[in-house]
Design a protein that fits this description.
By secondary structure, the protein is of the alpha/beta class. Helix 3 (82-90) links the parallel strand 5 and strand 6. It starts with 8 loop residues before the first helix and ends in a 9-residue tail after the last strand. Mean pLDDT is 85; it is low at 2-7, 11-15, 554-563, 680-695 and 844-850.
């Protein structure tokens, strides 16, 4: 520990200096982004006073050479003395203060060692407290993976969190982090201010993949590559220089907030020895610059983030409807974009407030005024007016980061993706209620298939190649408020295209500020899900919720995951890259808070008047919902400093209400659409159709043709007609025994099979079989009735027997009626398609046309 005769190094610093702070994925110094261009410094052989740092004269010489190379940050592995901190302040160099402690031993097995570690942290922070050159404290560095495995990752994370709290309590404005490494990537450090990781990968492809991986591990926090380097003795100075150059460039291109090259000089003393057989330094021990020095100098003095060569022109489209409260800050953010080739197109979709007038105040943007026609139409209007090869969509209640387009452009330039999205982060709100609402589930979020490929990107921050949008016909105009982003992503992926994700291409997206507006938004999302369910039935499960193949970042599924994932340690814990592998998302994670679960809970509680078994089952069901809410609250970081308990209660209430409100809106929309489809025929038509042809598990239609028609020529128009009629029709993907199916019906699953008999030449006999099968809902109704009947008989409860006597026949009649209704309508669709194709219906045995 330094001892320079003062209690705190901060007391000796008289110059006012702005502290670096975190905003989203980046570091900021006042109103300017601060990109950390760093190098590690030391450890050196201790001097006569035991300080592992050079003399003031040598530090002065080093800092002068660093500034010539564009270096603005150093990382130390010991607490620096005051002379270093003061000189760093003079040279405008920030310091990452490493605090050493006994991390190579089983420190959690000895309470005295744990107290000693806490003392080391507090003593170091007290000494440096308030010094303006301090950038951050590193409270630990690469705890060996066998030690973490011995103690368990959870206990180690909890101890590091305690060290973090100790440092923040003494210096609340300072940043605090832990330097992780790939062998303990699974170590949860989501409490730190920035995510730091030491990475030694010298293959560019592997390096890119891992930086993308680290961005997702970091989440919404800045990513710092806190160590990387190469030994010039073994690799050669030329290769060292080339590698460090592309490593720095790639890190900033991919959105890192900072880098630390290991190390400044070959003068390196560790473990009680002067190291002479390694040469990682940018300069030699006598401070003679290597080729790597000039390579890093060129990379650090380049613009940050770097701009791609031949940067593509990007058209930014903002669609606005009654967006007066947020319109100006949205457009102001577009004026600050640090991108050389872009245009902005503002589509005022019939706003009744001052949205259009505010947009007209920006003559550099193209403003289009039109009557209110819905979000998708507005997006298509912007697409048509765009002249860029890439179209980036930004919501009118969002603000773009200055480098938003730069990171999007890099992703398009380095991949074949037709779409790219990025995170949308909630800006800090002044009202505690708004911050609570922002922490509630259901906000737009991205869904990733892996670290770089997305399954879904939210509409508030998405970009597409214009050619791809035109190919799929743009956005579906039936989505007037929500759901258009999901639909366009699925349609592009159905054509074999991929969608990328750029974690640094962030926008600040306002969440709803009141509970009322939040619930209204969630119900709107529920309606959109019902529309998507009709168009993409294969993407949804039995409960009507989307079956995402990727991992959802944020939202209710994250907190309610059934599994914490499996850690790969390697044989005997020797894996170089040890990470957590998560199981696919399961609808069971959502079920305890779903509308269906709560309806079942209410029915069981009401059934308590009939039998105490129902009451017990209802109470257990309700407790599972409460437990799910509690788990989600614990996993939620509510950014409020006042009314903490009230805030957590509000967030918990929203956690519970959100899936119910969204589910109710979805179910109501589906029921309305179902009623509209089945109303046309009426019950008389259905019953008459059943009487004309005995009702069986399937109906077979037969048609003759001599036009040589093939099976696909019949199936494609049949699929189109079913979907046009409003049925969620599926086609076989190779794993089903049927060709088409109507799968969105609540009571029956209707598979359709087609076979063509070849009778020589162009003569064909087409047979079309329409069947029906019970859905889980219809089975559930019948099983509930049977269960009540059995329970009533066993308990000698006439009430239960009577209830079952109502449920069973009503359920059977409902299933029969609804199934017959769908089959009759499917038959009409088949007959219409057959008539259009000129197929001749064959006569049945009773002489009637089929």
């Amino acid at each position: 520990m330094p001892s320079d005769g003062v209690e705190s190094a901060g007391e000796a610093a008289s110059v006012e200096h702005v502290r670096v702070e975190v905003r989203g994925k980046f570091l900021w110094l006042g109103t300017t982004k601060f990109f950390m261009r760093g190098v590690s410094y030391g450890p050196f052989q201790p001097d006569a006073m035991g300080s592992p740092f050079p003399s003031a004269e040598q530090i002065q010489q080093d800092f002068a050479l660093m500034r010539q190379a564009g270096i603005n940050t150093i990382r130390t592995y010991d607490v620096p003395p005051q002379r270093l901190l003061d000189l760093a302040l003079q040279w405008n160099i920030r310091v990452l203060v490493g605090i050493p402690w006994a991390q190579h031993i089983c420190f959690l097995d000895d309470r005295q060692v744990m107290r000693s570690i806490r003392t080391s942290i507090s003593r170091a922070v007290r000494f440096c407290n308030g010094h303006p050159s301090i950038l951050a404290y590193i409270i630990g560095n690469e705890i060996p993976s066998p030690i973490v495995r011995w103690h368990g990752p959870r206990k180690v994370s909890q101890f590091l969190a305690q060290l973090y709290d100790t440092a923040k309590a003494l210096d609340p404005l300072a940043l605090v982090t832990y330097a992780n490494y790939p062998s303990t990537e699974y170590l949860a450090t989501d409490f730190v201010d920035v995510y730091a990781c030491n990475v030694y990968l010298h293959d560019e492809t592997a390096y890119r993949r891992y930086v993308a991986r680290l961005h997702n591990v970091a989440g919404e926090k800045p990513l710092i590559l806190s160590e990387f380097g190469m030994d010039a003795i073994r690799a050669g100075e030329e290769h060292q220089a080339e590698t460090l150059a592309w490593q720095v460039h790639t890190a900033f291109e991919m959105g890192a907030a900072g880098t630390v090259v290991f190390t400044w000089t070959d003068d390196w003393f560790t473990g009680g020895y002067q190291i002479t057989d390694w040469a990682f330094g940018l300069v030699q021990a006598d401070r003679t610059p290597r080729k790597a020095y000039y390579a890093v100098q060129a990379a650090y003095q380049a613009p940050c983030p770097p701009l791609p060569e031949d940067a593509p022109k990007i058209s930014v489209v903002v669609c606005a409807y009654n967006a007066e409260p947020t319109m100006r800050e949205c457009l102001e953010s577009l004026t600050k974009l640090a991108y050389p080739s872009y245009e902005a197109i503002i589509v005022d979709d019939g706003s009744r407030d001052r949205t259009g007038a505010i947009a007209d105040e920006y003559p550099q943007f193209k403003v289009i005024h039109q009557p209110n026609r819905g979000l998708s139409v507005a997006r298509n209007v912007g697409m048509t007016a765009a002249t860029g090869e890439i179209i980036a969509y930004l919501d009118s209640d969002a603000m773009a980061d200055p480098d938003w387009l730069t990171y999007l452009a890099w992703k398009f330039k380095t991949s074949q993706h037709v779409g790219v999205g990025g995170p949308n982060l909630p800006p800090p709100e002044g009202d505690w209620t708004a911050n609570c609402v922002a922490s509630a589930p259901g906000s737009p979020t991205h869904i990733l298939l892996d670290d770089e490929i997305a399954e879904h990107i939210p509409g508030c921050n998405m970009a597409f190649r214009k050619q791809a949008l035109v190919e799929v016909g743009g956005f579906d105009p039936t989505y007037t408020a929500a759901g258009d982003d999901v639909d366009i992503c699925w349609r592009l992926q159905d054509l074999g295209y991929t969608i990328g994700f750029s974690p640094a291409a962030i926008v600040w997206h306002h969440r709803r500020k009141t509970v009322k507006s939040y619930l209204k938004q969630q119900m709107g999302y529920g309606k959109a899900e019902a529309m998507l369910f009709r168009k993409h039935p294969g993407k949804f499960n039995t409960l009507g919720t989307a079956k995402w193949a990727g991992r959802i970042y944020g939202g209710i599924r994250t907190g309610l995951a059934l599994s914490r994932g499996c850690i790969y340690y390697g044989v005997f814990g020797s894996g170089l890259f040890q990470r957590v592998y998560h199981s696919p998302n399961s609808w069971l994670a959502d079920f305890p808070l779903s509308l269906e679960w709560n309806i079942l809970t209410a029915l069981l509680l009401l059934g308590g008047v009939l039998s105490p078994l129902f009451l017990i089952a209802g109470l257990l069901s309700g407790l599972m919902s409460v437990w799910s809410v509690i788990r989600q609250i614990v996993a939620t970081d509510v950014p409020v400093s006042q009314h903490r308990w009230l805030a957590y209660l509000l967030v918990g209430g929203l956690q519970y209400i959100q899936p119910i409100a969204r589910g109710w809106a979805r179910v109501r929309r589906l029921l309305v659409e179902h009623a509209q489809r089945t109303r046309c025929g009426g019950w008389r038509t259905v019953i008459w159709g059943v009487m004309r042809q005995p009702w069986r598990r399937h109906i077979t239609l037969a048609y003759w043709t001599e036009s040589g028609i093939e099976k696909s020529a019949l199936l494609h128009p049949l699929l189109q007609h079913l979907r046009a009629a409003g049925y969620p029709a599926l086609n076989d993907t190779g794993w089903k025994p049927w060709d088409l199916a109507i799968d969105g019906h609540p009571w029956a699953h209707i598979p359709i099979e087609v076979v063509l008999e070849n009778h020589g030449g162009t003569k064909r006999l087409a047979r079309i079989r329409i069947s029906w099968h019970f859905t889980p809902l219809s089975r559930g109704v019948l099983w509930v009735g049977a269960g009540l009947l059995g329970l009533g008989v066993l308990e000698a409860q006439p009430w239960l027997v009577g209830t079952a006597g109502v449920i069973l026949p009503v359920g059977v009649l409902q299933v029969a009626y609804q199934s017959a209704s769908v089959i009759q309508q499917a038959c009409r669709v088949v007959k219409d398609v057959a008539a259009q194709l000129g197929l001749i219906p064959l006569l049945a045995r009773n002489g009637r046309r089929v």
